[in-house]
Amino acid sequence: MTVITLSGYRKTVKWVRAVLFLGFFAVAGLLLLIGAGFLYMKLLGEPEVAVPQSTLYLAADGQVIGESHASEKRYWVDLDEISPYLVQATIAVEDKKFFKHHGFDFKRMAGAAVADIKAMAKVQGASTITQQYARNLYLSHDKTWKRKLSEAVYTARIEMNYTKEQILEGYLNTIYYGHGAYGIEAASQFYFGKSAKSLSLSEASILAGIPKGPSIYSPLASLPKAKERQKVILAEMEKSDAITPEQREQALADRVHITGEHLHTDSDTAPYFRQAVQQVLADKLGLDEQTIALGGLRVYTTLNREHQAIAEKTIKKVIAEDSDIQPAFVSIEPKTHFVTALAGGKDFATSPYNRAVQAVRQPGSTFKPFLYYAALENGYTPATQLTSEKTAFRYDNGQKVYEPSNFNHRYANGSVTMEQALAVSDNIYAVKTNLFLKPETLVQTAERFGISTPLKPLPSLALGTSGVRVLEMVNAYATIANGGKYEEPVFIQRVETADGEVIYEHEPDKKQRLDKKQAAVLTHMMTGMFDENLSSYANVTGASLTRKITRPYAGKSGSTAYDYWMIGFTPQLAAGIWTGYDDGRKIVKAEDKHYAKDIWLGFMEGSHRGKPVKKFQKPKGVIAVDINPENGKVASSDCPVTRTMYFVKGTEPEEYCTDHLPKKKKEKEDQKEEGWLQRLFPLF
């Protein structure tokens, strides 16, 4: 039994009184502090709207080539000029209690915190519309505590000084909807070609889903993902009784027409190139879309304005105006791997889809240099001979058959050298080599060249049947031109803030992925497509260009029924182009099949005009030997056709060609050989 004494009771009472007394003053102090804070924010009045600063893009010569603010589309409209469907959809998905809270949804914030803790990651957002509005107007999107505190202060000030309708109107007029469209009016005009007040339920529910991630949920970026997001929004609208189940079903069933055109378009330089630069800023530097668009950055790019102008002019000149053929073009400086020009289509204003960096198409025979480099590493030389004839290849333990054919079904029906096989693009030689090396070897070799798309290790891979990107293909050829030194394509040299602080500067990161001597041998082999001495049973693939070129080029053309390619280089510059239809139609018109080569040559000749003619390097340990291309033997003065071939020293042929000696001379050579045999074997 516990006994409480009188003195103990008095001590307990004193402690209770002290705690209550201190608690009272603590609560009072906290209330006073909160009150003072609110009074201070009230006295500050309406927060001044921050004016966003333009992000400038500069070419390699320092000239401005684009300005983000100039390309932003902002058209402020009153709340009653916005479709009620859009307003309801936005509230349903972004902030259901918008009209009930005072800027903060504490219950939602707690739920998001619990969800994040359970997942051990940021999986659920809790920002109200007011908080997002404050962030868009006044703050960056970094995740520091300082920024979060500032956001809370601005949110409170906005709620104190503006009505809910004013806040909602401001939010809908400043939020980013992707593709340069800021605010609902610009977004409505861009995506659907109509004003915001005319949006249907189906259109409004698609637009309301974009701000969560414009690069993900834009119907132009991914229509399936945009539709998935629309389904979620319509379900939330039904839950909040904003629409009926019937309206939801009808909206999901409605087919919407996406225009993808701004009401007014800008005419800045190299829009496809700048789009690629913006993607690098997001992916490599981790900058959010708001900072990229309105952060006042100075982005110093690698663009060569002369190269870009020549590329655009040549594309416009060569491709017929009424043709639906689209081009994808890239040029890269081999020594630095700087991207000097890029075009992702004929006209950015009508089609912002960047085919140069996004499209994955079959490269055809432009893939063969990777195969022949692998062959050089595995004992082949340019003079290695294989038989070119109609062949059915069995693989997968004989279970499958692959029957490729040469262009126009032309075969040597005899042996050809690897150098001639590359020059005339002999498919039989390529597939034989691929199977001999094993297709997995070609996959691994292509990866060393920087090809990142999935490649299937099949016999047909030698003929370029797995899809690739133009940017990676041109950069792979630039790697060959740079003696086997690989680096990722470089778009940005430096990025500065508006205050001049350098937040990024490119540092070269070259890796010697290829053997320098073998890269030189491969380069010389690739000049063969322009050497008509290698034409015999078939013309070299550059025959139509040989009389138009003014300097040595190395390259390779390629084609499928749906794609035409040409990629090549000099020591100073690599360039490549793909042409084809977006919808995958076959290319049947004869003139359409010449576009790729004609654009490539027009660009290369124009870009090199007035520049010194440079020869490809022949590093130490590589020798040049005159070879008879018909038999791969060392040519004599009597051979009617010769081709200088490069070999790593010690791998060159030693046998001389005697097929074309004069009759007397040949008899003499035979007698010499016979006499030599008799001296060696006297009994015979």
Can you walk through the features of this model?
The chain is α+β, with helices and mostly antiparallel strands. Among the domains are: 1-44; 76-253, Biosynthetic peptidoglycan transglycosylase-like (Penicillin binding protein transpeptidase fold); 364-486 and 510-562, 3-Layer(aba) Sandwich (Beta-lactamase); 622-676, no CATH class. It is 41% helix and 13% strand. The N and C termini lie far apart (131 Å).
Write the layout of secondary structure elements.
Layout (H helix, E strand, L loop, with lengths): L5 H39 L11 E3 L5 E4 H4 L1 E2 L9 H11 L11 H14 L9 H10 L6 H17 L2 H11 L6 E2 L1 H9 L8 H7 L6 H4 L5 H17 L5 H9 L17 H13 L5 H6 L3 E4 L3 H14 L7 E8 L4 E6 L24 H10 L7 E4 L4 E3 L4 E3 L11 E4 H7 L2 H11 L1 H10 L21 H12 L3 E2 L5 E5 L5 E4 L5 E2 L3 H11 L27 E6 L3 E7 L4 E7 L14 H14 L13 E7 L4 E2 L8 E6 L14 H18 L4
Parallel strand pairs: 1-5, 3-4
Antiparallel strand pairs: 1-2, 5-13, 6-7, 6-18, 8-11, 9-10, 12-15, 13-14, 16-17, 17-18, 19-20, 19-21
Keywords: Carboxypeptidase, Cell membrane, Cell shape, Cell wall biogenesis/degradation, Glycosyltransferase, Hydrolase, Membrane, Multifunctional enzyme, Peptidoglycan synthesis, Protease, Transferase, Transmembrane, Transmembrane helix
Pfam families: Transgly, Transpeptidase
InterPro entries: Beta-lactam/transpept-like, Glyco_trans_51, Glycosyltr_51/Transpeptidase, Lysozyme-like_dom_sf, PBP_transglycosylase, PCN-bd_Tpept
